[in-house]
Amino acid sequence: MKDYGIHFSMIGLLLYVLQLLPNIIWKLVPPANNVLTKNTSAYNILNIIEGLFGMMTVILMVVLISKGEGRNSNFFIGLAILFLVIYYISWVFYYNGVVAPWLIILGIASMPPLYFFFVGLWMKNYILLVPCTIFGIAHILITSINYLR
Known about the structure:
6 helices, 68% helix, mainly alpha
């Protein structure tokens, strides 16, 4: 922990808000066929794990700063941006009525954890990777259970 400090990161907040944009639009202007409103688990423990580790991921991204010099390779932020673009494109398909399980699982559920993971690598915030991975597994598992039956 000596390599980290508790500070507010405007970059971390901005990177979080970029991922959050489709969710804000979804809440304000839901699509006609909005199947994602039912994307919770029948197993409450999975919902708790997803919520808790999702919040931990965001909090660590915004307030836990690596004291290491600079940022990691641009390769990591490039991958994060790629996953964010795929996420945005998936939402465009979703709003156009495509509600196929592959789109929801691969495009909408898998992309945010991958985005956060590579943002964490880029920011040299390796502690973030643990809750992010747990969040990702729970998020994808819940979505898979709901849309692959």
